[in-house]
Amino acid sequence: MLLPDPLPRALTPLPGEGLPGLLLRLGHRLDVAPFQLIQRTGIHDSDAYIPGRLLLTLDARLAVFAHATRLTTTEAAQLTLDSYASCFPPVAESLKTKPGVAATRAPVDAWVLSHYTRYCPRCLAGNGTLIQQRHGGPWKAEWRLPVIFTCPEHDTFLHHLCPACARPAHAFHIGGSKLMPLIRLPGLHPAQCRNPHNDALPNRLSFCDARLDTPTLSAGRPPVSPPLAGLQERIRHQLSPAGNPAESRRYFTGLRVLTSILAATWPLGREFALAAAPESVDQDLAERRHQAAIRPPGARGRVPFTTWDHPPRSALATATLLHAADQILALNQTELRHALHMMLRSAPTMDSGRWGRSWHHLAHYGAPALNREITGALRKHALAGLRGPAVNLHKLHYRIQHIPQWLPEHWLPHLRPGVPLAPLLRALHHRAAAVRLIQMASGMTLEDAARYLGIPDTWYTDPHHLRLPTNPFFYDEQTTQLAGTLHLLGHTSDYHRRRQHLASWTLPDADWDTIWQQAIITGQYGRPKAVRHLHQVASEFVWTRITGSERSLAPALPGLTSGCRTTRHMWLPLTCPTPTQRLHGFYRALRELLKRYAHHLAVEAGHRA
After folding, report:
1. Which of 197, 245, 299, 319 has the greatest count of CB atoms below 10 A from its CB?
2. What is the pLDDT of residues 316-339, one digit of tens each?
3. Residue 239: its pLDDT value, please?
4. How many Å is the Cα radius of gyration of the chain?
5. What is residue 8's three-state secondary structure?
6. Is the backbone of residue 175 left (phi > 0), alpha (psi -120 to 50) or beta?
7. What is the mean pLDDT of the chain?
8. Which stretch of DSSP H or E encloses residue 156?
9. Residue 96: per-residue pLDDT
10. For the chain, how are helix, strand and coil distributed in percent, rounded to 5?
11. 155-178 per-residue burial string, b: 16 or more CB within 10 A, e: under 16
12. 139 backbone φψ class: left, alpha, beta (φ>0; ψ -120 to 50)
């Protein structure tokens, strides 16, 4: 790689300084915009967007940047959060890339503050040395970690708002940079607020420019209490090289998940925060509810700071929730179980989107014992009493044995009129609607209704792989309309009896041999490949047609490997034939033969297909 020319002057990074801080101070010294430094030092070459990933790592540009800024690669690497990846899971998750997604566009975890930063005014004011008198003190990298809420040098809580514009420091705005606002603007002191004014006239630059390095900003703030100072010291130890990375990952994951639970169930866990400042959490949650209330109906995309998985913006509120979570982690097993059941007795269900990435982190980084206790408590309270809104049962003209586990397609317009659904959401609606129809007619709990339909327990008890929503009441108005018209659809088959009778049924070898040979003759097609795979697909087709259940629940042929269950290329033409291809002539013939076979099998069992 061709190295750029070194900058005419350089600055030695201050202790703990992050990349945005060095760019601001270096730009101030050279009287150029931070954006010009980004391009001249080779760390990013896009004119449109400066990604938050630069807070985490310089990737392959590390050596180029170090050469241009006259730093060693070690000094340059210390400007990012990359060193925390081994002990702080949100950084490790943010560094992951997905196939087909550019690394610069990969999302940054909510527990890395990429949309704003906290700060200490006294640190920004500098330590009195000549270089810091001229260009200010450091914007520290660790201030982007929400678990850092105090400044140990000045014994104060960190700030996050500008006192003049009342917006978060270095707030991200659409179309801008996640490193800092107005990144193309030169001439500002590194400690000046760069937030643009919301009411600025078109084509006219207007920004706050208030100073954030005024020590009087900390006047009137509550002192850091000994319990919170001790917690911050323990957190810093877990983040330091002296900590055990595996232990640190479990610890921070426990803090994160319990913080989400506390936020979701507050004030039930308030007793664990009495040594801190529980009123700050009250204020933070009130602000979150306000943000959710003013969100336009039907708006898409993530709602920042309205999910429980997002840490509070306020350092004091964050410290309070982390202190409460730390207190819970210190409980013995009996006390922990009691605390979790106390908080989760009225918690939202596991599939609520407002839990964010809580369960992902718990599964991948959490302590197994904590995982078991939280999952057990959530399951108990999510399933207990889940009977749904009351329904006038005497008006329903169907019986629960007439409800298939997988609803026929011509029933679905009642559930989602004119609303196209993604395949996953479509499957969730299928399953949830069937469960609700059982509940409406019988008053069963979700657990009992799902078992009645033959749905495995793991589909609604495993929070990491939910295939049935534990809150099946969405689209309940449409489900009720469907319940009132089922008698007009002419479905009186006893699907429950069929599911029991054919619980382990597979298409017999002799019957299959006859069917597929007839299909070859009728469809004018040579001998098919992977006959055993096709036998499994045919067995699933017959079984699902008779029992009214979905394919993934169908029994497997004896001795069949799991790989033979994923024969999508055979299942789709069999269920949705396309007559324009010669190959599908065979599948059309096979489909008709299997439909007749299913009908005769149902009649023989005393049912109507």
Report:
1. 319
2. 999 999 999 999 999 999 999 999
3. 96
4. 30
5. coil
6. left
7. 81
8. strand 156-157
9. 86
10. 50, 5, 45
11. ebbbbbbbeebebbbbbbeeebbb
12. beta
Q: What is the pLDDT of residues 263-272, one digit of tens each?
A: 988 888 899 9
534: Cβ–Cβ under 8 A, 6 or more apart, which residues? 516, 528, 567, 570
Q: What is the pLDDT at residue 385?
A: 46
In whole angstroms, give the CA distance from residue 545 to residue 560.
Answer: 21
d(CA 94, CA 109): 5
pLDDT at 300: 47
| Distance set, CA 161 to CA 218, 292, 443 (Å) | 12, 20, 51
- Separation of alpha carbons 316 and 123, rounded Å: 18
Rounded to 5 degrees, φ, ψ at 174 are -55, 135
Tell me how far apart the alpha carbons of residues 377 and 371 are, in angstroms, rounded to a whole number: 10
User: What sign for the dihedral angle of Cα 225, 226, 228, 232?
Assistant: positive
* Per-residue pLDDT at 560: 72
Contact 135, 25 (CB under 8 A): yes
pLDDT tens digits, one per residue of 203-231: 557 889 899 998 776 667 788 999 999 99
DSSP-derived secondary structure letter, 576 = S
**Residue 166, strand partner residues:** none
- CB 522 within 8 Å of CB 589: yes
Q: What is the pLDDT of residue 608?
A: 45
Do 525 and 585 form a contact (C-beta atoms < 8 A)? yes
CB of 594 within 8 A of CB of 515? yes
- Give the H or E element holding residue 150: strand 150-151
User: For the whole model, what pTM was predicted?
Assistant: 0.67
CA–CA gap between residue 24 and residue 35 (Å, rounded): 10
Give the SS3 label for residue 157: strand
Backbone φ and ψ for 399, nearest 5 degrees, come out as -115, 155
Question: Is 314:263 a contact under the CB 8 Å cutoff?
Answer: no
CA distance 369 to 476: 36
Q: 420: cis peptide before it, omega within 30°?
A: no
505 vs 499: CA distance, rounded Å: 10
**Calpha distance 234→227 (Å, rounded):** 11
- C-alpha angle 254-255-259 in degrees, rounded to nearest 5: 115
Q: Which two tokens stand for residue 222?
A: 């509550």
Question: Beta-carbon neighbour count of residue 60 at 10 Å?
Answer: 10
Which parts of the chain sit beneath pLDDT 50?
175, 201-202, 298, 300-304, 385, 389-394, 579-583, 607-609
Residue among 159, 146, 153, 152 at smallest CA distance from 120: 159
- Amino acid identity at 249: R
Provide CB contacts within 8 A for 130, sequence distance 6+. none
